Hints:
Blueprint: E1 2-8, H1 13-23, E2 29-36, H2 42-49, E3 54-56, H3 65-78, E4 83-86, H4 95-100, E5 105-109, H5 121-128, E6 132-139, E7 149-156, H6 163-186, E8 190-193, E9 196-199
Parallel strand pairs: 1-2, 1-4, 2-3, 4-5
Antiparallel strand pairs: 5-6, 6-7, 8-9
This protein binds glycinamide ribonucleotide.
Amino acid sequence: MINLGVLVSGSGTNLQAIIDAIEAKKLPANINVVISNNPNAYAVQRAKIHNIPVEVIPNSSAATREAYDNIVVEVLKRYTVELVVLAGFMRVLTQSLINAFPMHIMNIHPALLPSFHGLHAQKNAVDYGVKFSGATVHFVDEGIDTGPIIIQAVVPVYDDDTEETLAKRILKEEHKIYPYAIQLFAEGRLEVKGRRVVVKDTAKTENTFLENPSSNQK
Length: 218
Ligand code: GAR
């Protein structure tokens, strides 16, 4: 059983996927706290519905990004969090938070990193004309969406896709791979070797996340 702290800013569908996996006893974890920088995030309501402690820390709480992150670290430690899960948390972390949880912070990004890092990943993928995109779960380092990659899922990009239709297709995969990445961490099966994350005992894994698109898939 691992203690999670989930950081959110928005609708919280990834948070919901993690809650559902825990409640279905697929994920040996407990969400000790949900932290939101946005008081109006629907993710906050989701946490309350499931009786999970919520701490709202508005962006205005601190004068600098470092000072903000120091508050977050204090809250995470107070709730004895072991793994920090960024689930649509729209702030760039500073070294003070990253150093407090080295290789113990995960993020999910709606693209196949290192392509289309940063904001508007789905729109940028459509505009660029790639034929595949997807989702990436990675450990967080000091860069933006640059840390060692844990899991990726691939989705096709169709000719008539818009930012919205692609985002929806990617989100469906996010909800599968994020709880699974946390499960691998909780089971002690992730070994970070420089940039590479080795998943141990993969032969026991029944899930497969590479979805090979074909012309009749739609
Ligand atoms: C997700 O698509 C997530 O990948 C993205 O924000 C969305 C949050 O949705 N995160 C980023 O773009 C971070 N760079 P949710 O609030 O419904 O989980």
